[in-house]
Amino acid sequence: MDTAPERRALAGRLTASGVLRQDSPWRSAVEAVPRELFLHPGVFLPVDGGRWQPVTALGTPPEEWTQIVYRDESLATQLDGHLTADAADAPVTGVPTSSSTTPTTVVDMLEQLDVADGHTVLEIGTGTGYSTGLMCQRLGEDNVTTVEVDPQVAARADAALEAAGHSTWTVTGDGLLGHPARAPYDRVIATCAVRRVPYTWIRQTKPGGIVLATVGSWPYGTGLAKVTVNDDGFAEGRIIGRSSFMHARAQALVPLAGDLSARTAYADTERPAKIPPVLLNEWMPAFLAQLTAPGAQFVRAMVGDGTRILYLFDAERESFAAFTEDASGWTVRQGGPVALWDAVEETLTAWQDAGSPDIANVRLHITEQAHTYWIGDRQSLRWEHRLI
Q1: Mean pLDDT of all residues in 59-71
Q2: Which alpha helices (DSSP H) does 83-235 contain, by range?
Q3: CATH assignment at residue 330
Q4: Phi then psi dihedrals of residue 210, to 5 deg
């Protein structure tokens, strides 16, 4: 089935929404690259009960399949690190481990990359290969290098790129290490989230080059960092907005195991919470909490009587904060060598006192030794994460 009309319609919608800039060179790439090639053998669509319905290209009427392919949604293409849609014949449970990101997100990031003709790009996280295909169409296949950690995902992406007419450099490996063999690059773009921007990416980028990556350790409350590499090997920029991607597999948080109530049975302190922990359900407070306690996990739980319990755990620092709510508000119990909620509360209070600035006000400086984040000139809104 010829999908040229759908591709033109997609480009039109992206232009009308402001994602594609007027007269953008990316428009012709969107119109030329068939997204359906990158979704074989199929996708998983969410259904009730946290399950996933497998939908395959061969088992779906062409008009219905095309409608799925070109709607502006993220489409899961792999569950639990191995399961693809052609291997399931009924709804299944699982955790998405590879997907095709929404065209809006993909194209917006490519626009933010500020490429020019002749630029070389390193992509971290090939995934389905659709964004790789757009870059090959825009810049030429010899100027694009893409790294994917999952061999099966990489093989499918490489086959899709070949079908689209692009024999690019598809590398199977740990993208956190970049790909020094073809460095230096004019641009580096990550389609996975990282806890911090690896300095290897900075080192493999030309002076004046740009690195674009989603930073943060939680599934939400993450920010899109855009930094420019200086002649001295440092990089500086800012968080340009919200962003949400699957995490690099080597950095993905491992779900906490065991009885959480037992892990928090003995606390050093107990007091009323000055700031309700449910504030961490909001994007910017969650981002600030991660800057303050980068090793922590925010966990929601419910006991048998329906009582909500929220937790902050930092396994590396063997510390926790446990929150319970009653008619008078929230109580926090803290244990371990680090008073996690004291630190987070101090940050959130300073942020509120500063007028609750948006995530786009966060600046970032990267060296080989540290990542430093700050907002404005306030010393209380500054975070330094030492690397060595």
Answers
A1: 94
A2: 103-112, 130-139, 151-163, 199-203
A3: 3.30.160
A4: -120, 140
**Residue 348 corresponds to which tokens in the numbers above?**
């959130």
Three-class DSSP labels, 3-30: CHHHHHHHHHHHHHCCCCCCCCCHHHHH
Residue 85 inside a domain? The answer is no
CATH number where 226 lies: 3.40.50.150
Determine the pLDDT at residue 265: 85
**Does 244 share its domain with 388?**
yes
How far is C-alpha 169 from the chain's CA centre?
Answer: 23
Nearest in space to 388 (alpha carbons), one of 367, 373, 374: 367
- Residues 240 and 365 placed together within one structural domain of the fold: yes
* pLDDT score, position 380: 73
Which domain range does residue 336 map to?
255-352
Q: How far is CA 131 from the centre of its chain?
A: 15
Q: Residue 158: which of 174, 144, 176 has the closest Cα?
A: 144
Here the tokens at position 320 are 């926790």
Asked if the structure places residue 62 within a domain, the reply is no
Instruction: Kindly state whether residues 334 and 366 are assigned to the same domain.
Output: no
Q: Are 322 and 264 in contact (CB under 8 A)?
A: yes
Written as one letter, the residue type at 357 is P
How far is C-alpha 127 from the geometric centre of its chain's CA atoms? Answer: 13
Residue 226 sits at φ, ψ, to 5 deg, of -125, 110
Taking only the tens place, the pLDDT of each residue in 282-340 is 999 999 999 999 989 999 887 767 678 899 999 888 999 999 998 899 999 999 999 99
- Whether residue 294 is found in the same domain as residue 236: no
